[in-house]
Amino acid sequence: MIRRINSAGLALxxxxxxxxxxxxxxxxxxxxxxxxxxxxDVVPGLxxxxxxxxxxxxxxxxxxxxxLSTLRAPLNDNQFGAFAVFLFNVGLGALNGEGMSAALSxxxxxxxxxxxMLRWNKATVKGQKxxxxxxxxxxxxxxxxxxxxxxxxxx
Length: 155
Known about the structure:
Blueprint: H1 7-17, E1 20-25, E2 31-34, E3 37-38, H2 50-68, H3 77-90, H4 98-105, H5 109-118, E4 122-125, E5 128-131, H6 133-146
Antiparallel strand pairs: 1-2, 2-3, 4-5
Family: Belongs to the glycosyl hydrolase 24 family.
GO molecular function, one term: lysozyme activity
Pfam family, one: Phage_lysozyme
């Protein structure tokens, strides 16, 4: 069964992404549109409407939700939502990194995963990795949601 991001997760994502209906370059210089959509289809001058932006968001979240649904860790809805928002931003490749992989496999995964999430607060700007205050705030908000108790999802 594929789990979907909860309403708190969507609200968090929308709070940090905002919705831009005209293509723009993000802090790392990547062409972006809608709720943080990137890809070859995003080119300078591209304009979309709100309905298209919302559809792109759901499409972009689908592979994240599918991958998170395969994890063995019994994530509650807030952990699932926070992790989905994190992976939406940094990409699914983060799951393959040594640090995150080890965190997910750890007996103490509920503490180890957010520690790893907080490390993803940098972007490459002019060839250098630098801490981006907006990314640091985003990671802190994702971790706060991760740590917010809720009823575990039904299996």
